[in-house]
Structure formats: C-alpha cells, structure tokens
From TrEMBL:
Its EC number is 5.4.99.12. Homodimer. Belongs to the tRNA pseudouridine synthase TruA family. Residues 9-104, 145-246 form the Pseudouridine synthase I TruA alpha/beta domain. Keywords: Isomerase, Lyase, tRNA processing. This is tRNA pseudouridine synthase A. InterPro entries: PsdUridine_synth_cat_dom_sf (IPR020103), PsdUridine_synth_TruA (IPR001406), PsdUridine_synth_TruA_a/b_dom (IPR020097), PsdUridine_synth_TruA_C (IPR020095), TruA/RsuA/RluB/E/F_N (IPR020094). It catalyses: uridine(38/39/40) in tRNA = pseudouridine(38/39/40) in tRNA. PANTHER family: PSEUDOURIDYLATE SYNTHASE, TRNA PSEUDOURIDINE SYNTHASE-LIKE 1. GO terms for molecular function: lyase activity; RNA binding; tRNA pseudouridine(38-40) synthase activity. Pfam families: PseudoU_synth_1. Substrate binds at Y111. Formation of pseudouridine at positions 38, 39 and 40 in the anticodon stem and loop of transfer RNAs.
C-alpha cells in the first residue's frame, strides 16, 4: 500500500466546501471520483483541513493510500486531465511515509483574507475578496489589533464550533496586514486554525477599522473565551488557504 501526497489549488465559488457532506458537490467528492476513474477503486482522500463553501485554496494538501502502481510522476497530469478547470493539481505528486497525514502532520498553515476598499468592486476579483467601499478603514488600528493576536492564545472567542476540538489553544506565528491601492490583504500563519477562526479575526479587524472595536479590546476578547465578545464572521469568499508546511522528512 502506497501513501501519495498531492497539492491542489481551487476556486471554491461553485462548491460546497472541501470536505464531503450529504449535499455533495465538494472538492473532495470531485477528486475522489477522478481517482476512481484512474484506479477503478473508490479511494478516500485526507485533506490538510476543510474549507467552507466559496472558500478558495492555492495550496491545499491531501494524501491517500492506494494499491495502484501508477508511477508517482504521472499522477498530477493524469488527475488534471480528469478534473474540472477550477480544480488543479499544482505540484508533482510524492510518495510519502505511511504515517504521513495531511492534517495531523502539518506544522504551519497560511491563510489570506482579501478586502477590496475601492468605491467599485473589481469585477474580475469579485469572487475572491470582500468589498468594503466605505467608510475608509483605519489600517493603523487594525495592525495594532493584530499585534495582540500574535503568539499562543486560547481562541475560543474566535470560533463557532466549540465541540469539534479538544483544545482551542493555537499559536499565530505571523499576522500581517498588507495595504495596496484599493485593497487590503490579511495574512495569518499559525500552527493550526479553529473552525471559522480566520474569518472571525477578519470580521473583528474590519470592525476595528470602522472604529466599532478598539484595538485594546482584543486581549479582553481572548481572555473572555466567549464568541459574543468578538466581531462578526467575515464572508467566506474573501478567504484563501495559501500554503501548508510540513517537516523536512514529510515534504
């Protein structure tokens, strides 16, 4: 039995998220069907994390166990020829140790949340960023708030699913808000993220930028461990999973 690791990018606009669910039409469903056409066997894939409906990825990782003898260098092109145009394998496949698990072996993940601040939304990027035309966001205040979120904290106030994880403690290694003309991009790198955590952080920062929440209120949100203390959950389509990092032995 071989363990194959692959990296994909996808436009999540028309899908119900990454992870299989009763309603179908997920990224996982599409990939598993493509693998079945190649091997003749229904194969379950393991994703590095689930992304919600309309959330995108530039570097989602998955692995699967298979008895197929298809050469590892053929997997990427073979799958891409069977996948829709909005789902692409973006790196050559790799055979990894049997113990490798795309989710549990991950060391770091990076997400981006994009905000269009122009008066009119960008028609070509409308499915990939949240449009916030006015009032002008206070970027300095948003960056000050971000500083309070870096490091190891209990992020209970920044998740909507309290039963899915044994611990809500996570470490954010890097939190950067980049400003360009008519656009803000939030980059978060951490050792893991709770359900809706990045979107709640983004929604909270938008409220900070609007003056509705003071940057100094962030430590109290963390200490209070209550979802009602933080800001709203930002819309899904502004979020993209950028990269997942593993140890050297598991690359």
């Amino acid at each position: 039995m071989r363990n194959i690791r692959m990296k994909i990018a996808y436009d999540g606009t028309r899908y119900n998220g990454f992870q299989t669910q009763p309603g179908g039409n997920t990224i996982q469903d599409i990939i598993e069907s493509a693998i079945e056409t190649l091997t003749g066997t229904r194969t379950r894939i393991i994703g590095s994390g689930r992304t919600d409906a309309r959330v995108h990825a530039e570097g989602q990782v998955f692995n699967f166990h298979t008895d197929s003898r298809i050469a590892v260098e053929r997997w990427a092109l073979a799958l891409n020829s069977r996948l829709p145009e909005d789902i692409r394998v973006v790196e050559s496949a790799a055979e990894v140790p049997d113990a490798f698990h795309s989710r549990f072996s991950a060391k770091r993940k990076t997400y981006r949340y994009s905000i269009c601040t122009g008066k009119f939304h960008d028609v070509f990027r409308r499915n990939f960023e949240f449009h916030h035309p006015s009032p002008k966001l206070d970027v300095a205040a948003m960056r000050e708030a971000l500083r309070h979120l870096q490091g190891e904290h209990d992020f209970t106030s920044f998740t909507t699913n309290h039963a899915d994880e044994k611990s809500h403690v996570r470490t954010i290694y890097s939190a950067v808000l980049k400003e360009e003309e008519k656009r803000l991009e939030l980059y978060l790198t951490g050792n893991g993220f709770l359900y809706n955590m990045v979107r709640i952080i983004a929604g909270t920062l938008i409220h900070v930028g609007q003056g509705k929440i003071a940057p100094a209120a962030i430590p109290g949100m963390l200490q209070g461990r209550n979802r009602l203390l933080a800001g709203p959950t930002a819309v899904a389509h502004g979020l993209t999973l950028i990269n997942v990092e593993y140890g050297d032995a598991e690359k």
